[in-house]
Specification:
elongated
Length: about 525
């Protein structure tokens, strides 16, 4: 190598070192120069303090659609790029591994591609094990890990990923569902000089542990930076130009955050005093006395629980039949707690709906089909239980009447309240696995509210009122999930003599004849459950 080449290499090394030093002290410059991204004023203020501020711990509660997960992924990419390999190790966590893998890690992969396209290749590589690895002369160095420790293992898992120099950056998404032990582990690994912790999330759950960080009279509140981001602070309302020199890029940015139309719609259907409005529009914690039936903790647990579908387990189908307008008919399948919407369609004739349900039940060897038999669903139920076309199929047909009595009317006002509570209890016990991608079901769960009757029994808010909070949509998916997943043992038991009066048990035609021969005293009339 000539002296000129050596000199050029030395100069390039000096230039890169100087550039890295510049970017190490200016996250926003790195984000723009390397990835080509910018953000709005409020987010810039927050991210600067997350990475460069005096306090090393920052919690951010935000409205929906403020680009929090995207911004967090950019900060992770910055931390892994501007420091020498081994100087800083980032721990990326969330309540569920799906959030880390399908959101944060997916964004990181996008950043790798974007940086490469701009000829600014990021260091190292991302593995399928949620690791960011740098292959250097001395072997592998881990720049970042995606980790969701099991309960009780938080400290051990976090302590095991300290960097060579002991500097750790912790990035946590969905902070509202993070429990106390996880925050304790974050505190323990960020004691080193230069270590930092950043937590983003929605303030949906008033009882969430991190809410205490906003109470500045508490020790935790005095050691954490805290911010709230309202939808009204977004460029869609402030008209701030994030990319003034590039209208196309500015439009793409606006399309990726909460729109003015979405907020205006929620203002029409949600009261400003409602918990949903406070958390999802204003980015504020709701009051403790909010009457949301499914707590955010129960929803987060059901969406993070993983139950492998066991094909040998009995398949129970819940069927909610569309009544009018934009409502959907929905089939939900439950195998041992693995619960999924398997089919849905717009309004069809009762005959076509019955055929669709019958065919799915036969093709998938369903053990039981539970159908909302009030209203138009009653016609579908009648066809499945009486017409020759629908004979065959060794599955139990059950008519479902939400207005019927609960097992204990001192606890639940009717069967609707009981079945909602049955699903909620299973969710909290970790016995229900809901589809992480099903955002419509998530919204329906969050829309359910309740009150107490004068006798102290739980009463779910009428469906017409709930529809107002769902832009006029009926909670069809949730209704099908509840039918498929509810524990019906208070009615069915295990023996014939354990059925409560009024139970409907209608099976295959031949089975029905045998059933009637064995129990002639029940007569021909089969009332609905």
């Amino acid at each position: 190598m000539s002296l000129v080449e050596v000199a050029n290499n030395v100069l390039e090394e000096i230039r890169l070192k100087s550039q890295r030093e510049l970017y190490r002290n200016d996250y926003h410059a790195w984000r723009h120069d390397i990835l080509g991204y910018r953000s709005y004023e409020k987010m810039n203020e927050i991210t600067w303090n997350c990475l460069h501020g005096d306090k090393n711990k920052t919690a951010v509660a935000s409205a929906n659609g403020v680009s929090k997960s995207w911004e967090m992924s950019c900060m992770i990419a910055w931390a892994s790029s501007v420091h020498e390999p081994g100087d800083v190790t980032s721990i990326v966590t969330a309540p569920s591994i799906q959030q880390v893998e399908k959101v944060i890690w997916a964004y990181l992969k996008s950043h790798f591609g974007q940086a490469a396209a701009r000829e600014n290749a990021l260091p190292g590589r991302l593995s399928e094990k949620l690791e960011w690895i740098y292959d250097g002369e001395n072997g592998k160095t881990f720049l970042a890990y995606g980790r969701v420790p099991s309960k009780g293992k938080e400290m051990a898992v976090f302590q095991g990923v300290r960097g060579v120099k002991g500097r750790v950056f912790v990035f946590s998404d969905e902070g509202g569902a993070i429990e106390k032990d996880m925050f304790t582990a974050m505190e323990a690994v960020t004691t080193g000089s230069g270590s930092r912790a950043t937590v983003f999330g929605n303030p949906d759950y008033p009882g969430a542990y991190w809410r205490r960080f906003w109470d500045k009279t508490r020790p935790e509140g005095r050691t954490w930076n805290t911010y709230n981001i309202s939808a009204f602070e977004l460029p869609t309302f402030t008209e701030e130009l994030v990319y003034p020199e590039d209208p196309g890029m500015n439009e793409r940015f606006l399309s990726a955050i909460t729109s003015r139309e979405w907020v205006e719609n929620k203002q029409e259907i949600w009261s400003p005093e409602e918990a949903r409005y406070k958390s999802k529009v204003l980015g504020e914690f709701p009051d403790e006395d909010d009457f949301a039936f499914f707590s955010q903790a129960s929803i987060d647990l059901a969406y993070s629980t993983e139950i492998e579908e066991d094909k040998s387990a009995p398949l129970i189908l819940g069927v909610d039949v569309a009544r009018y307008g934009t409502d959907e008919s929905v089939i939900d399948a439950n195998r041992g707690g693995h619960v999924r919407v398997v089919d849905h369609w717009g309004k069809e004739s009762t005959v076509e709906t019955a055929r669709r349900v019958h065919r799915y039940a036969i093709d998938n060897n369903a053990a039981e089909v539970r159908i909302d038999s009030t209203g138009v669903g009653g016609g579908v139920y009648d066809m499945l239980t009486s017409l020759d076309e629908f004979r065959g199929g060794d599955y139990l047909r059950v008519g479902w009447d939400n207005g019927s009595a609960a097992p204990d009317n001192s606890q639940h006002s009717n069967k609707r309240a009981y079945s909602h509570d049955s699903l909620r209890a299973q969710m909290l016990a970790g016995d229900i696995d809901l589809d992480y991608e099903d955002e419509q079901l998530r919204e329906e769960l969050q829309a359910i509210t309740y009150k107490y009757t004068p006798r102290g029994a739980v009463q779910i808010t009428p469906k017409d009122e709930i529809k107002k909070g769902l832009s006029g949509q009926s909670p069809d998916r949730l209704d099908a999930v509840i039918m498929a997943a509810s524990d019906m043992s208070p009615w069915t038991g295990n023996q014939w003599n354990q059925y409560e009066p009024g139970t409907a048990v209608v099976q295959d035609y031949e089975d029905m004849l045998q059933f009637m021969d064995e129990l002639p005293m029940r007569g021909a009339g089969m009332p609905l459950l």
